[in-house]
Sequence to fold (612 residues):
Amino acid sequence: MSKLLVVGTVAFDAIETPFGKTDKILGGAATYIGLSASHFGVDSGIVSVVGGDFPEDYLHMLNAKNINTDGVEVIKEGKTFFWSGKYHNDMNTRDTLATELNVLEHFKPVVPENYKDSEIVMLGNLHPLVQSSVLDQMSVKPKLAVLDTMNFWMDIALNDLLDVIKRVDVITINDEEARQLSGEYSLVNAAKKIHKMGPKYVVIKKGEHGALLFDDGKMFYAPALPLAEVFDPTGAGDTFAGGFAGYLAKTEDLSFENLKNAVIYGSNLASFCVEKFGTERMQELTADEVKERLEQFKELTQFNIT
Amino acid sequence: MSKLLVVGTVAFDAIETPFGKTDKILGGAATYIGLSASHFGVDSGIVSVVGGDFPEDYLHMLNAKNINTDGVEVIKEGKTFFWSGKYHNDMNTRDTLATELNVLEHFKPVVPENYKDSEIVMLGNLHPLVQSSVLDQMSVKPKLAVLDTMNFWMDIALNDLLDVIKRVDVITINDEEARQLSGEYSLVNAAKKIHKMGPKYVVIKKGEHGALLFDDGKMFYAPALPLAEVFDPTGAGDTFAGGFAGYLAKTEDLSFENLKNAVIYGSNLASFCVEKFGTERMQELTADEVKERLEQFKELTQFNIT
Fold:
């Protein structure tokens, strides 16, 4: 069992979907990643920052799931990062209604001593300099560094982003972002170009259309589970990444064959995340449910042509 | 080995893509379906109509692939159906530049005596009354009737379409059409509603995102093979349907497990179709290439979680 270090936002979200709307609820990339990875029973630690307005109960909830929050700095006089968005009817597009950086604006991540030797590091979506700073603090080179990012950083901090991409083993990125980063429309060609930027493995997330895993010359496809209703897509990509990293931390096998399993588990966990608002479904999720859904993924994808 | 009857257009297409453009070349749903099904060595017959301008060489090419064209009426004084379209850069959307119905306008399909007992009938995209007329002429109820259609018929002949949908076992339809026909955005819910309209199996084609097969309560997903370059998507959906029907005609096993294999073969053959303009790639395709690509589909989708 490897130790997993997660850096990313711990935040408040206010979400509106065709099914309803929420007040400020628990959100943030690191929250979703941590909750997802916790299903593999790994020892994980989060590096993040919150304000004095952040309820301690949320941290206790994470701790109860074996997620260490010693690396979550609390700035008493500051306010927690807040994001608000509204999803359109197709659930694939959304408008951002508000983004208040607050304590995130001057965030200097500090990796707790006990997590500086984590074998797996999951760099959640944040400024690439923050992601680099976490790698700089590791006392031992991680066996696997995974980076998630978004188009925003390509627009405003491309060189910093390229610097940190060079240092990681896996990048997870959505299809439009892969196209923007590579300048290639075909995802096969996009993955090839991104591979040359550094990462051995490229994972392209296609939302409801699943995710593609690329090695140099090899490909694997994990579908999203087709659902009757997607209630709230917020956090699905982070939940996918958390499941991916958590499974690898548990199994300690970094072969392409096992990375296939990791993306299947990522899809598995993400399929739960979207069933309720925010982190609600992930908080109550049981091991039996994950196991049962794995069988559904097998039925959905496995065939036997002789 | 079952006999396969195919009804659909045999036509001229003129195609423009970001990679180039063609003059009038061989096209039509029945052409693509027939060429695709021919890879399974089945005895198939096409019911269609062409004008005096249609080169006999095209018919001979089909005959050489064991595709019977006795049911292709030649109207000497008429002109062959012509479609012209231009694909946008994303290859997922296109503009129709011209549609000349010509001999198709008053098409009355006549099923040759020798194909009235075909065990499998593939109703390619055509007016639903033409599709119904083919079913009416069968001397023995087919073991499997498969229907393909498009949004155009939903707009102008919905009741006729619903009548023929009631009579078939499988419908193949793209995602947007499934949403239009059912009034449901979620494809899971759309399939449920379409299932209630008659067909035991619903196949929803998602283009580059693959295809979903629904039984009542069961689901299977066949991805499209991610390609570095899609040269011309024309005929991919028909090629998919032809591979699906051809495989079932060959194997004569209509269980859900074998229908899974049929959609994999549909995706397999469609992945070749898009590699060159029109039917070019399908005409030269070898059995070894199909077999090799099946291995690629297995690598792409099969995993082993213990």
